[in-house]
Amino acid sequence: MKHLCAVVLILHLVALSFSCNEGTNTLFDNIIHDTQVSDNNQLGNTAKVPSITKFNGDYFAATGVIRWRNEGDTVWSTLTLASGLHNTVATDGVTYLYAGILYNDGTGSLYQCSNPTSAPSSGSISVTDLKNILKIRNFGSSTPYDVYASYGKTDGTFSICNISGTTATEDPGVAGISPSLTDSINNFDYQGGTLYFVSGTKVYRGATLLTPSTTAHTYTGIMYDTVDSRILVSTNDGYILRSTDATGTSTPWEQNSEQCIYNNGSTDLPVPFTEIVPLDSNLYLVGSRGAGFWIIDWTVADAKDRVKRWNGSSYSDLYNGSIESIFIDASAGPRGFFCTIGAGLWDNTITVTLNSTPPPTYNINYGDPWTRE
């Protein structure tokens, strides 16, 4: 079903036209036209969708249960692996789908499922000292993917395990950190045989503690840029920091020089950023809790202009959404999936072009219409 929206901002947005302070208007903020939102209303427009992955041509989304559809379809089917809340999903890309399941008492389990769309066969995977699964992610461009999960332990600490087949093994580097991590592992990345993760006010490359800033931040997202060999982290108080070398040991890191601010309807607040994903060389997307998604462009010389809010304010549920994760399906457009907590699952094609006229700038183009699953 399709609903005509009121006027909306032009979808062919230039990354440099956004503002780190949402109150600052630019030329591109004022260009509007009529468009449509393709609202499939399959998952529900108030659904909580913490994560999504793709396995053998099918998308799998964690929505309390597992919902799935083929890439070329619009109808979502349901897969339930066990009783409880299915809160995160990933895959090895060959045999298994993995899901974290939470129970009412705050405990949880890790589950695997083979043949998830035809003849599902599932079972739990043992994780030593597991209290609950926080997040599962798969990494890599070729299968089998590397699969890791962050989790809470029964003693109140946190760790990360590698998942291979039907076996989960605590990462030895994380296990060797002393004292053990007492802050939740908010996000992690795995590239080139190295884990990168954030835990409260701490940033790690493997077991090595890094110091991105002399100012204390709570870090909420992390990624390693394999193109530019840099580490990026996001904070819950409106900052993006990027290392100046491949290992992150040179300090301090670069950052946006002006704190990113949004208005929650009554008050200006620092943006609580979430997961960062790459789009192109020096170009990234980052989610937030309550202010939609933002564009990070490190080609911009002026540090205050490197982080800009996507200015699609006419799509108010997405623009003001709490986006926990972003999944870029490179083989489908590419197509970006934006997983919100309470506003459903949104997706669109996203293409990037680089203007050669000095100074070089990016154009980020979104399809028309946006799809709300």
Structural notes for this entry:
There is one protein chain. With 373 residues, the chain is an all-beta fold. It has helices spanning 172-175, 316-319, and strands at residues 2-4, 8-9, 12-14, 32-33, 36-39, 51-55, 58-62, 66-70, 77-79, 85-91, 96-102, 108-114, 121-125, 130-139, 146-153, 158-164, 167-170, 185-191, 194-199, 202-205, 208-210, 219-225, 230-235, 240-242, 254-255, 261-263, 268-270, 273-280, 283-288, 293-297, 307-309, 323-329, 335-340, 345-355, 361-366, 370-372. Strands 1, 3, 5, 32, 33, 34, 35 and 36 form an eight-stranded mixed β-sheet that branches. Strands 6-7-8-9 form a four-stranded antiparallel β-sheet, with no helix packed on it. A hairpin with a 5-residue loop joins strand 11 (96-102) and strand 12 (108-114). The longest helix is centred in the middle third of the chain and has 4 residues, at 172-175.
The number of distinct helices, counting runs of at least 4 residues, comes to: 2
Structural class: mainly beta
The chain-level mean pLDDT equals: 89
Shape: globular
Quick one: biggest sheet?
A: 8 strands, mixed
Global Rg: 20 Å
- Counting DSSP E segments of at least 2 residues, the number of strands comes to 36
| Residue windows where pLDDT falls under 50 for at least 5 positions | 1-19, 21-35
Beta-strand share of residues? over 45%
Show the helix and strand layout.
Layout (H helix, E strand, L loop, with lengths): L1 E3 L3 E2 L2 E3 L17 E2 L2 E4 L11 E5 L2 E5 L3 E5 L6 E3 L5 E7 L4 E7 L5 E7 L6 E5 L4 E10 L6 E8 L4 E7 L2 E4 L1 H4 L9 E7 L2 E6 L2 E4 L2 E3 L8 E7 L4 E6 L4 E3 L11 E2 L5 E3 L4 E3 L2 E8 L2 E6 L4 E5 L9 E3 L6 H4 L3 E7 L5 E6 L4 E11 L5 E6 L3 E3 L1
Parallel strand pairs: 5-36
Antiparallel strand pairs: 1-5, 2-4, 3-35, 6-7, 7-8, 8-9, 10-11, 11-12, 12-13, 14-15, 15-16, 16-17, 18-19, 19-20, 20-21, 22-23, 23-24, 24-25, 26-27, 28-29, 29-30, 30-31, 32-33, 33-34, 34-35, 34-36
